[in-house]
């Protein structure tokens, strides 16, 4: 592939090596995680430092806030976070639960807007957090909108003992979600977590998803009567407000 720029791929791999679990790393750490030689890793790290995307104390390397610019252009062009945020705030006040919006990126969902009300997950969710789509309510409403489901031809990883991992079973669930118009996932991403989601559309195409997260102690009847109606209403409102 003559047009493929390998150095760009490696530079991005260095940036992606840093995450919530690894906010600081040594040169050796980065080389090990990325598979680069120490010499190559050093060149990429020092270049990123010179460009302002990283800083170093001479031993440890850390990302700087400027790295957010790499994703801001995408979020700005999408328009979804800005449109969704006031709707999320209103919904969270109404249902007293955390509400989020995500988009689909390959086999993952990526959070682009969120209003937390209480923490019920072990993992801290922030803008940019990713989860496997098949184990999330938002992922399922977006996967259900796909015309081709061949990507589900192999077994999927289990995040809990309740995660659907059989492709046939998941395809059947996605068909049901598409017909119903919303999804509910119980303890498939994390024990104790129940979430519901509805699609967000632009020009008839599903471009994102809205969810409400709650604890499994909340009765199913309460979810159906108190959470699903405002979820669907808000998803429709966000869809209407998106630029056409």
TrEMBL record:
| One of the Pfam families matching this protein, by short name | HTH_IclR
Domain of life per record: Bacteria
Q: Please tell me whether the keyword Transcription is annotated for this protein.
A: yes
Q: Where is the IclR-ED domain?
A: 66-244
Domain HTH iclR-type, which positions? 5-65
Give every Nidogen G2 beta-barrel domain span: 198-244
Please give the InterPro entries that the UniProt record associates with this protein. Answer: G2_nidogen/fibulin_G2F, GAF-like_dom_sf, HTH_MetabolicPath_Reg, PcaR_PcaU, Tscrpt_reg_IclR_C, Tscrpt_reg_IclR_N, WH-like_DNA-bd_sf, WH_DNA-bd_sf
The protein's matches in SMART domains, at most eight in alphabetical order, are given as: HTH_ICLR
**Which keywords, in A-to-Z order, does the entry hold?**
DNA-binding, Transcription, Transcription regulation
DNA-binding listed as a keyword: yes
Give the protein name, as stated in the record: Helix-turn-helix domain-containing protein
Which species does this protein come from?
Kibdelosporangium philippinense
